[in-house]
Amino acid sequence: MIINNKDTEEFGATLLGYNIENSEIVNYDDWMDGSFSPITHRQVFKFSYVECNFLFEQNNDDIAEMMISNFIKHSSKAEIKIEDLARTYKGVLDEINKDKIVKGKFELTLKWKCEYSFKEEPDFILGSRTGSLFVPGNTETPAIVEITPAINLIDLNIKGLGEDILIKNLTANKKIIIDGEEGKVTEEGKNKFNDYDSWGFPYLVPGENTISMDKDNVEVKIKYKSRWI
Q1: What's the pLDDT tens digit per position in 46-103?
Q2: Alpha-carbon distance 29 to 40, whole Å?
Q3: Are 101 and 177 spatial neighbours (Cβ–Cβ below 8 Å)?
Q4: DSSP string, 122-170
Q5: How far apart are CA 159 and CA 131, in angstroms?
Q6: Closest CA relative to residue 24, chosen from 96, 116, 139
């Protein structure tokens, strides 16, 4: 098992088992007097939970307690990768339970409150003015858009990434990054938000996404993770 890019064995933790709970569902609905059926206005999926049991075996209690303390600290905000599963879970530590078995031997149960699970996907390059990208998963996911113009351009319009995007004052061979995860726009590492015009930041929806731009001589690369509730 990998947590934040480190094998749990590095902390002396052996995974005994795990359980994944489905996302919480919150319904906003009404059942009006005299109505035969309720009205569901909307349905929201919220946190899911990942619970894992670990075994710690050391020569004495002091070493075991130190290893457990280091492991909990490392895992408080976690990206959790379990060998049997293709997806990674992102969450914060919500519950801790520790039971002593014998001297130097403990069972530790950690439960994370997770936002979503995700899977790294290959970069998509828009090789012409229009392209199609199929996104696995079952919920929207933010996108990171890298724009590299071959020539100077007054502006560039991009459609198909949520709200329409207009980026102005593009300079040949200078990469612009529109980061939908962090909510920022940069050119060669410098802030370029003043040249960005959109109602939001780029994202992709599950299934087919048709993406287009209105200029040639531009490379557009899209990076993203497919997401599941």
Answers
A1: 899 999 999 999 999 999 999 999 999 999 999 999 998 999 999 999 999 999 999 9
A2: 4
A3: no
A4: --EEE-SSEEEEEE-SSB-EEEEEEEEESS-EEEEEEESSSS-EEEEEE
A5: 11
A6: 116
What is the token pair recorded at 139? 């919920």
Q: What are phi and psi of 67, to 5 degrees?
A: -65, -40
Tell me what pLDDT residue 129 has: 95
Entry pTM: 0.83
- Answer whether 164's CB lies under 8 Å from 145's CB: no
Burial class (CB in 10 A: 0-12, 13-18, 19+), 117: buried
Q: Distance of CA 80 to CAs 96, 113, 117, Å?
A: 16, 11, 9
Residue 198's pLDDT is what? 97
Closest C-alpha among 163, 162, 161, 148 to residue 215: 148
Amino acid at 75: S
- Considering the chain, what percentage of its residues have pLDDT values greater than 90? 86
93 beta partners: 112
Give the N- to C-terminal CA distance of the chain in Å, as an integer: 21
Tokens of 189: 């590492």
Separation of alpha carbons 210 and 16, rounded Å:
44
Alpha helices (runs of H) in the chain, residue ranges in sequence order: 61-75
